[in-house]
Predict the structure.
Amino acid sequence: MKKMFFPAVLAALSVSVFTARSATAANGRLTPHFKQSSYVNESVTLENKYVTMNFFKRIKGWGWGEILTPEGKLMAVMDHLGELMIRDQDIPMRFEADSVSRVRTDDGESLVFNVKSVVVREMLKGTSFDNWMHYPYGEPAITGTVTITVTPDSPFVKLKYDLTATGNYYLRYLRGPWLKVGESSFGTKKDDAILPGVDWAIGDEWTSGSDFFKDPWALRVVPHPNKVSVPLMAISYEGDGIGLAWDPNAVAARWFNYRTQHPQPVFASPNFVDRMNNQLMGLMIPDASVEGHENEIYSQIAPELRIGEKIEFDAELWLSKGNSVDVVTDWVKRHGLPEPSAPKWDYRKALDLMAGAYNTNLWHEGHGFGVVQRSIDEAGPNIPGFLRRYMNENKKSQVVKELQAKIESLQPKEVPMVKIETPEQKKARQVKHGDEILAIQRADGSFAFEPDGRHYRKDDFKVATSFVEPMGLDGATALDITILPAMELLQIGKETGEQRFLDAGKKAIDFCMSMTRPEGGDFWETPLHAANLFAAGHAAIANYKAFEQFGDPKYKEKAVYWMRTILPFTHLWEPEEIPMLYNTKPVLSSSDWYFANWVRDHVQWEVLAVFAQSIANGIRWEEVDPEIDWMKFHRGITNAAIRWMNVHTDDNWRPHNIPETYDRYKEGAFDYCFPDTHNATTGNYGGMFIPPSAIADNIYYLLDREAEAAKGKK
């Protein structure tokens, strides 16, 4: 983040007087909403048309503030300007300022607090505690400045903590920005709360709750920083949201050549950390850079701060209209999507490698093409769609000639006449299928979840139900459970001209209009109502198809909303040591309650499938939603998938449910396929292998769009 000004640069106006402009002003003085702090009738306001921030003076100095919407709704309390807990003292020390200065620069208007940690020994002097309690620390352990900056034309408020340790001591925690959302206003009530890639709670659900995880995975209050996909936290209530963002690669603290401490997010709704009727979003050190030290509010292995060591937090907070998805979207609009990493191989080279794989390790004589992991039956005569195009465009290639010979070897010498379906027969088949769907649609337009019936895929639900509890109730519904048949009904109605199918599809989509969290896409192995990327993509496509069919703009608006819900699942940053830009989480839950942790692991095939399905439906999201650069996003997820393409000599993959495949992996049997999962904390890949054709489909679309753009420039 950009360096801020220093008070010495410009003349600073000392501000140690109250401001009289507030809806809560009484007798000419600002009356705070928050009562759980001392207040000596001195306050100062920093505001623009997007946000109002009132700061208040405690008995010993400036130390806390309130964050309000322009309409006066209290969104959060910042109940300190920082707080320190050291190993050898059992009382935490908050940061307070003797004075505050107002400074105006080209960056905007700022309040600069010259802070220092309180000295407990001094606080007790002259009290009844003085003769029986004595702490050895006689000076502030931390000094520095906290600078809060607003600009006239932006809702984003800059927070800069520039602190210095005054001695050597062991750290339990040092807290920077620490917001108690809903304090003294709406309390624990919320519409939703999102820590992208980690948690997505709605209504009265708890973050770190056991709704979609079981312990020990359920607790995610202080997650490994790599698990956070977008470096922000968001909470909303009744049409207003608040966000807090940071740079996860920033150096919060480092001494000499010792380990770097990065800003560590802390997220709890309700605030079970402080056990208060509010909601918490904050930043602290030390960080949980090892999974074994996740969820430590008090560090179990206390790092030492050294005299003169710098501690810095740079963050942003902002208010958004809407819910937490809008908070995330506003951050993306402000910062833009990151430029995708260059692909491991350029697109044409990647296509060559995939075609070569189908000609070698993905070819099985007498059976056909496939990724054989359990049985030779996984290979068959079906030809991947991209391969036909590749062969048509590279007819002179030796690989293509060999592929052609392989395909011909699968064709019987005497091909029986293929019965061609007449238009009447096709319509009859579609109507029959449509009637079967209508027969299971409920009166309200929804469809029921049937884990032992039509939704049965594998025995995961049976295992979960017998081992712990069901991951979804028979007869319940969720977004994807209703959206998938809705899409089928719209398509059947469009192709047959039968209005009853269109009406039924519309009714199903209307049933889902009030939903805000995408759910149900991985129903075969994960909790039914967990936040899910697949459901987000399906709902975006279905709503846009409804817009095309019926012309009602509410469907386009909802399509855009659902597409934007994919953003919290997507890594829009990466740590310096592990490439993971545009990797995606499939679902924020576990599988079978215990057997796979989808907060730790990425999956790329689902997001590729969403975009491939969008391509098949002729939807160009960058044109539907031009505020988000969806073409860049599409390049990002595709380049990430190319990064996933596996070569056994890299030795960065291991199996889990089919351990016997490891020997075949070492022989190159799965080269240029891509694996099921990527571990965000280790950088290793694992699971089953997936054919690379899904990557090729997305590559061809991007190449076609590049060619189209180049043609348009001529």
